[in-house]
Amino acid sequence: MKGVQIMDKSEAKLILASHTMGPEPLDDSQFVEAKRLAKDDPELMEWWEASKRFDAGMAKKLNDLKTPEDLRASLLATVESGSRRRVITRKVYRYLSMAASLVLIGYIYSAFIVDRSDDYTGPLLERAYAYSVDGPRLDYFSKDSSDLVSWLTEEGFELPPNLPPKLLAQEGIGCRRLNWSESTVAILCFNAEEVYHLYIANKTEFAEFEVVENFEYEEREKGWTISKWEKDDFVYILAAKSTPLNMSSMLANYTP
After folding, report:
1. Cα(23)–Cα(7) distance, rounded to whole angstroms?
2. Do the Cβ atoms of 201 and 179 come closer than 8 Å?
């Protein structure tokens, strides 16, 4: 049985980041709870309000730009999507190359067109750590962790048959497919007082990934801990702003 989890600030921020423009989804219980938490947390509310002001301001600037209608529509659609998905088409590049202001090109390109989630480089472990610290952009949200597994499967990601049961018993946050080095990596986020980021990839696509026989817990800056292992032809990375002891408890009754 999954215990009742209280949404924390990190989870609320992930959800609110996807709702900075457009009408509020009042039928979404997770959003309603995130907004309630923001009302009780001045810092979180100010961050969300600032994000909404920024996106609204940029949307107005885009509307004012004298650009071809289909380019403007593409940029605005990117902003209003909430997750700011990547919009990469030959037409967009052609129009941007014709723009007069290089500063504006860079600003629009950086802020609206590119979802940088797929642009992380370096060894898989370092990518996963950096992406976790920066705050991942998730594509699907659910408090039911089994929904996260189902969504990734429906999206065509082959998940291993056995995942850490203690993690799956936690409240879900969300998930996403990442494309790193032309390989697909799944990320699943769980709420266990701290946010746990679980990355899964097929080990044939990351031959350089080195692991040891038993779990190792590496402490990083600002209270972060990471662990890695392999099992069932997959490689795994777990990252959280947590202690090694707490992280090890999340992997109890699970053997690599």
Report:
1. 22
2. no
